[in-house]
Amino acid sequence: MKNSTYDIAYLELRRILKDLREKKHLTQAQLARKLSVPQSFVSKYETGERRLDVIETLQICQALETSINQLLSKIFKRAIWPANR
Fold first, then answer.
1. Three-class SS state of 58
2. Which of 1, 6, 26, 80 has the greatest number of beta carbons closer than 10 A?
3. Angle between the N-to-C axes of helices 54-63 and 28-35, in degrees from 0 to 180, rounded to the nearest 10
4. Burial category of 78 from C-beta neighbours within 10 Å (exposed 0-12, middle 13-18, buried 19 and up)
5. How confident is the prediction along the chain (85 residues), in pLDDT tens digits per residue?
6. What is the sign, positive or negative, of the torsion defined by CA atoms of 16, 20, 21, 22?
């Protein structure tokens, strides 16, 4: 199992979180304020410079008014899993 910000599933997670933020018409700075973190935190996970842990992902979902189940469902639909190749 890869532990990279560039594997397919993680790339999809990053894309989905960015899409959700943009659909809420939030800037990175606005989302960062909701999360009580610096804007660079949002920038770094969106660009793959930083990996999110589960708790951070849950907090982001809450700030974006989505459930972790919805997020995971989107990742499974979009990602190409090695087991499915």
1. helix
2. 26
3. 110
4. middle
5. 456 666 888 899 999 999 999 999 999 999 999 999 999 999 999 999 999 999 999 999 999 999 999 999 998 887 665 554 4
6. positive
pLDDT of residue 6: 67
Displacement of CA 80 from its chain's centroid (Å): 17
Residue pair 19/26 in contact by the 8 Å Cβ criterion: no
Residue 37, classified by CB atoms within 10 Å of its CB into exposed (0-12), middle (13-18) or buried (19+), is: middle
Amino acid at 15: R
**First-to-final CA distance of the chain:** 15
